Amino acid sequence: MSDVLPSRLAFIDLETTGANPVVDRITEIGLIEVVDGVETRWSTLVNPQRTIPAFIQTLTGIRDAMVKDAPTFAQVAGELRERLRGKLFIAHNARFDYGFVKNEFQRLGERFQSDVLCTVRLSRKLFPEHHKHNLDSLVVRHGLYADGRHRALADAELIWQFWRQVRERQSEEAFLAAVRQQLHRPALPPHLDAAVLDDLPESPGVYRIHGEGDLCLYVGKSVNLRQRVYAHFAADTREYKEMNLSQQARRLDWRETVGELGALLLESLLVKELKPLHNRRLREHPEICAWRLEAPAPDDFRPRLVYAAETDLGAGGDLYGPFNSKREATNTLRKIAEAYKLCPTLLGLEKPNKTPRACFAYQVGLCKGACLDKEPRNQHSARLMAALAKLKIKAWPWPGPVGLVERDDFREVEDVHVVKNWRYLGTAHCETDVSELLDQGDQAPFDPDTYKLLKSHLNKGKLKVRLL
């Protein structure tokens, strides 16, 4: 973007039958065109060719009878396209309005594309001290006024008023920087369709970058897919890894999730399933294991390595870990032994001497002498347990499977992540999905990455837990 603000602007608001642009339809369009300071207003009801839900009718005041004889979107599409042509598309929560317009044109077999600016994001950038940035909050905060709140042209008028106010009250430099931040586009990979970025949602989810032959190159996640992918390709000239990935990219796709946990779970699952070329983290590990404390004699506890293939690590008990490999488990235990001056011989990290003799660690002051009975075995065992405490695998706290509920009230969507004994069985969108996941639940393996992220999110206490 140049250092001059755009002079051709389109402030737009839509009323719709719901929140999903794929299945819901437009019922009203309100548009204020501003070209070189000259304002033009245009609005029209639109026949959505379906019933408007009762709560939407109550909210907007637009009844089925009002749109019965209104033109369909196909009948106003030509005029709308001309009015938007060459103008900056400005809306509050712009991805919502832009998504609806794009989908309506797509139903007609036409492609619509425009530079987009969101006044929610603009408000957040310019007024970070405020928590709320919905249109009602802006009305109160900035003294905006328009007749007929929740009607398209009235709400477009509020957006235009907000734009004028912040334009006048903010410095030229601050306002231009906030606008430029939204309109900046990264240099796209040479073989990737530029139109793909226009469809990226500003919602949580997982994206996949594919190369030649549809080989999966990379799987990533974000709470804002659009922002993350933009940043991904913006970095390609600064980092060799990103530049290499950019040159190989041929296709991009994504899957939206309701929240962050869903994105994390899906990312972990897809990395292990697809084994992307550029993902090193979250890969599948065949040697998942944990330390189990066993007592060869009373009060003398020793660690023994057990593997997920032979032990249900999700059941908890005296298990410590989990680890992705024997090497990781051994290195961790060795570091603990050095930090707490535990005897490496009793821990199985060194072979015992044939004759009673101090271990090497004792000789250099890193063992308190349990190998020579200078430290009682019960005391050594107690220190070992205390040292391992942070690694203890938490027992599954419920008698059976549960659903961890993530909900987005704005989009009116909900995900239920079905989990049993720390095993992620899948994400359900309806009761039938839950039943199907539970039926195949025993096939899900224990995964250390899944265990750690589930434990972390549950500790935050923000997830609703539903017993299944």
List keywords for this structure.
single chain; 468 residues; Nucleotidyltransferase, domain 5; five-stranded mixed β-sheet; four-stranded antiparallel β-sheet; 16 helices; elongated
What's the pLDDT, averaged over the residues?
89
Rg estimate, integer Å: 30 Å
CATH architecture of the largest domain: 2-Layer Sandwich
Number of strands: 15
Supply the CATH superfamily name of the largest domain.
Answer: Ribonuclease H-like superfamily/Ribonuclease H
The coarse overall form would be elongated
Sequence of strands across the biggest β-sheet: 3-2-1-4-5
Low-confidence parts, pLDDT < 50 over ≥5 residues?
Answer: none
The rounded distance between the terminal residues' Cα atoms is: 52 Å
CATH topology of the largest domain: Nucleotidyltransferase, domain 5
Q: How many DSSP H or I helices?
A: 16
Work out the strand percent.
15-25%
The secondary structure category is alpha+beta
Described by strand count, sense and barrel closure, the largest sheet is: 5 strands, mixed
Highest CATH level, the class of the largest domain: Alpha Beta
The helix content is: 25-40%
Number of domains: 4
